[in-house]
Amino acid sequence: MFSSLRQLFRYRALIQSLVARELKARYRGSVLGFFWSFVNPLLLLLVYTFVFTVVLPDVHPRELEPFALFLFCGILPWSWFSSSLLEASNVLIAGGNLIRKVLFPAEVLPIVTVLAGLMHFCFGLPILAAFLVYYGVPIVAGDLVWFPVVVLVQLLLTLGLALLLSALAVHFRDIRDLLSNLLTLWFFATPIIYALSQAPSSVRGFLTLNPFTHLAVSYQEVLFHAGPFTAWPRLLALAAGSLGVFAFGYFVFDRLRDTLAEEV
Questions:
Q1: pTM
Q2: I need a labelling partner for 126 at 20 to 30 A (CA). Which of 1, 22, 147, 173 fits?
Q3: pLDDT tens per residue, range 253-263
Q4: What burial letters (b/e) apply to 24-57, b meaning 16+ CB within 10 Å?
């Protein structure tokens, strides 16, 4: 396993080129091209703004105003997380012609999926930042230092789960369908469309078992709530757990590597 991880560093140029190809392929043939990377999150934010300021103006606490921005702080990283896992669950099957080649490292494919999702997440950040400035939401510079740490923790967690799911889905094709339903439940079990403080105390303990809860709260504290960043102890604990998830995901992938070409 450790020798495979060391070799993975040698494939960084291959990963970079495949991520660029993935981004280009997504918008190939469209008039706006890469501009859609900015238009999509902008339209999503405008829809949320319309719904929660015009249609449902009084369904959330006043401290969460502007609610569309609060929601977007959680939706943006969740979109990266959920889309990466869904695509990773099918990426080895779709790329079967590549992994049948003896020298091609199969783990590159789920990694490329996650990194392409990270790029789309980054494309959405300028839109979020512009609206935070427009609405005058205060951003504490000391809290903003934690932002790359939150992104790195999410990257580790997503990579570990993507490697695990991509390898298992080759042998158990029902995983993709199960995952789409599980992600719906996972979304509502994460404080994205509500604040963690709004959840009943009897449910709050269950929500804290959800790893993405701590990521969502961290993004909200860094980008939306003014004040000291209080989520750092749980974020660092999640960082250690995410490192373990990555190690376990890569271990399972490495053990199943020799069977992948036969099953796709």
A1: 0.90
A2: 22
A3: 988 887 876 76
A4: eeeeeeeeeeeebbeeebbebbeebbeebeeeee
